[in-house]
Amino acid sequence: MASATAPPDAGSTACVLDREGLGALVRELRARDRTVIGPAVRDETIALAEVESADELPYGWGVEHEAGYYRIRRRSDTAAFAHSAGPQSRKYFLHPERVRQWSADRDPEGGMTVRAEHSEPPSFAFLGVQPCDLRAIRIQDRVMIGGPHRDDTYGARRSGAFLIVVECAEPGATCFCVSMDTGPAARSGCDPALTEVVDEAGHRFLVRAGTEEGAEVLASLPRRPADDLTRTRAHEGVEAADGRMGRTMPEVDLRALLAGTLEAERWNDVAARCLTCGNCTMACPPCFCTTAEDVADLTGDRAERWRRWESCYDLEFTHLPGGSVRSSGCVGCGRCIVWCPVGIDITEEAHALHREGERQAGGKDEAS
Predict the structure, then answer these.
(1) Can you give the pLDDT at residue 326?
(2) Residues of the chain with pLDDT under 70
(3) Rounded to whole angstroms, how far apart are CA atoms 122 and 215?
(4) How many Cβ atoms sit within 10 Å of the Cβ of residue 71?
(5) Could you tell me the CA-to-CA distances from 294 to 96, 100, 110, 308 in Å, in that order?
(6) In what order do the strands lie in the sheet with 192-199?
(7) DSSP-assigned states of every residue in 184-228
C-alpha cells in the first residue's frame, strides 16, 4: 500500500505560495513561452484546457462521481485542485487521439510526392497533475520513448514538458490509487510539487522543487519560507486522503489473479454488460494503443495516413491466440469506472474474481 509520507525534498527547501503566488507562477511559465494546461470548468466538467491566468482555475468547484456518473458541484471553500480525476488526462496533449503521419499528392504527370508530417509542438507546462496521472505519464514514457521503437510525435511533445504536480487531498468515490501504489502523495518525476491548504490561516500552497528548473521557476515567484502550521496541515490532508479512497483492489498479485481466472464464470457476467464502446480505454491515462487509417479525396489525387487511438476492447484488435501481449498499467484513477456507460467497475470485478477463485480453490481442497 502507498504511504502519505512526504517526498524527500519536502524539507528545508519547501516554501509557501499564496493565491497571488500561484498567479505569478502561471505568468512566469507563459513568459517562458510555455503553453500552460490546467483544470478549468468547461461544459459541466472540470476539463483540461490552456489557461492564460490562474483566475481560470476551478476555485470552489469539486466533483461527485460514481460508476457511470459524473457531476461538478460547488464546494464550501475556495480550493482550486480539490477535485479527483476528470474526463481527460495529459494523454490528450502528449499522445493526441489523431495525428496525421504523412500525405501523398499526385502531380499532373502522374508522379507522387510523399511528405512526412512535421510540426513543432508547444512547450507544455502541465499545472495540477495528480500523482496517479504522473505515474501514467511515466508509463507512457517507458512505452513511447524508453525502448528501441521510439514514437517521435510523443517524444517531441514530452521533451521538456514542465510538470506541476498537486498532491491529492480529495479522493473521489471511484479512486483507488493507494491500491496501485500511485498516490495520493507526490513522488519523483515532478518539477515542483504543490500541496493545497485552505484553513483558518488562509488559502496557500506548500511547494517544493523536484528539479533544477523547478527551483529556478520558484525562485522567481513571490514566496515565503514554509511554516510549521502549513507543513502540518499539508501532511494531514494527504494522509487523510490515503485513508479515504472510494475503492480498493484486492490485496493479491493482480496479474496472477487474472491469469488464474481466465475461465471464471464472472467474465460471462462482465461480457453480457460490456458494450465494447471503448470509453474505458479512451479515458485511461496510460493506455497507448493506436491503429492506422488511410484516407483519400474523391479525385484520388491526394491520400493521407492518420494514426488514431484504438481500444483493445475492439473485437478485432490485438486478437492473438496466445493471450495478452502487455501487462497492466493501471494507476487507480477510476476514470474507467466513471465513464463506463453501464457502470462496470474494475475493482468490483477484481474482488469478485478473487472470491470466485478462492471458492474454486476451496472446492478442490475438499475434493482431494
Answers:
(1) 55
(2) 1-12, 315-316, 318-328, 363-368
(3) 22
(4) 11
(5) 17, 10, 20, 11
(6) 45-50, 35-42, 124-129, 162-166, 192-199, 202-209, 15-18, 224-225
(7) SS--TT-SEEEEEEEETTEEEEEEEESSHHHHHHHHTS--EEPPH
167: which 3 cell numbers?
Answer: 498532491
Would you call the peptide bond into 225 cis, given omega within 30 degrees of 0 as the criterion? no
The CA-atom distances, in angstroms, between 109 and each of 71, 94, 113, 161 are 58, 40, 11, 45
Integer angstrom CA distances of residue 39 from 57, 193, 195, 292, 320: 6, 16, 16, 31, 39
Q: What angle do CA 49, 52, 55 make, to 5 degrees?
A: 90
**Centroid of chain to Cα 18:** 26
Q: Which three cell numbers stand for residue 300?
A: 484520388
d(CA 166, CA 192): 9
**Gyration radius of the chain's alpha carbons:** 23
Asked if residue 225 lies in contact with residue 15, where contact means CB atoms within 8 angstroms, the answer is yes
Domain boundary assignment for the chain: 15-242, 254-367
Q: Give the integer Cα–Cα distance in Å for 58 and 44.
A: 12
- Say if residues 154 and 145 touch (Cβ distance below 8 Å): yes
Nearest to 106 by CA among 118, 114, 117: 114
Residues 208 and 192: their CA atoms lie apart, in Å, by 6
Cell of 56: 481560470
**Would you tell me how many other CB atoms lie within 10 Å of the CB of residue 189?**
17
Give the residue carrying C-alpha cell 494523454.
Answer: 91
Strands (DSSP E) contained in the chain are 15-18, 35-42, 45-50, 61-66, 69-74, 98-106, 112-116, 124-129, 162-166, 192-199, 202-209, 224-225, 290-296, 302-309
* Sign of the CA dihedral running 251, 268, 356, 247: positive
The tens digit of pLDDT for each residue in 202-256 reads 999 999 999 999 999 999 999 999 999 999 999 999 999 999 999 999 999 999 9
- Cα–Cα distance for residue pair 146/141, rounded to 1 Å: 6
Strand partners, 70: 65
pTM, entire model: 0.90
The amino acid occupying position 349 is E
